[in-house]
Write a structure and sequence with these properties.
- The strands form 2 sheets. Strands 2, 3, 5, 8, 9 and 11 form a 6-stranded antiparallel sheet that branches. Strands 1-4-10-6-7 form a 5-stranded mixed sheet, with no helix packed on it.
- It has one domain (about 5-10, about 25-140): Jelly Rolls (Sandwich), CATH 2.60.120.
- Helix content is about 0%, strand content about 40%.
- By secondary structure, it is mostly beta strands.
- The N and C termini lie far apart (about 40 Å).
Length: about 150
Amino acid sequence: MATTYQMQPIPGRAGGKVGPGDAKGLKCAVFTYALAGALVINDMLQSPMFDEGTTIVDVTVVTPDLDSSGSPAVTLDVGYGVDPDYFIAASTVGQAGGVARASAATALPLTLTADDTIDIVVKAAPATSATSGTISLAVYFLPPNA
């Protein structure tokens, strides 16, 4: 059964809703999730909430090898509540580990019309899932009224 896991800010950063800071320029919020068990299809790693009016400019996912099978199958989507693969669609980055950036055809800057999270979704389950390691998500954004 799929589960939603809450990603955490990197050590030394405050938790809770992502704030605007000085509200004048591009921001980057980085979140992490430490694997505590095997990932399954439709599991979701969910960032803290971004304010309505925030413009998401880009996302970057950094992941270890999530699928140790000789024929890895895991794929990841990155999106938000309305469109779960808006930024990244069926990325194979978790099959060997590495970095993936917004690359979906829809991955244009997105201004949120309601408070929302940015989510990593396991689109295809790992054939042999890793049970340790850390997945990171960097979200580049302009706060409302920037």
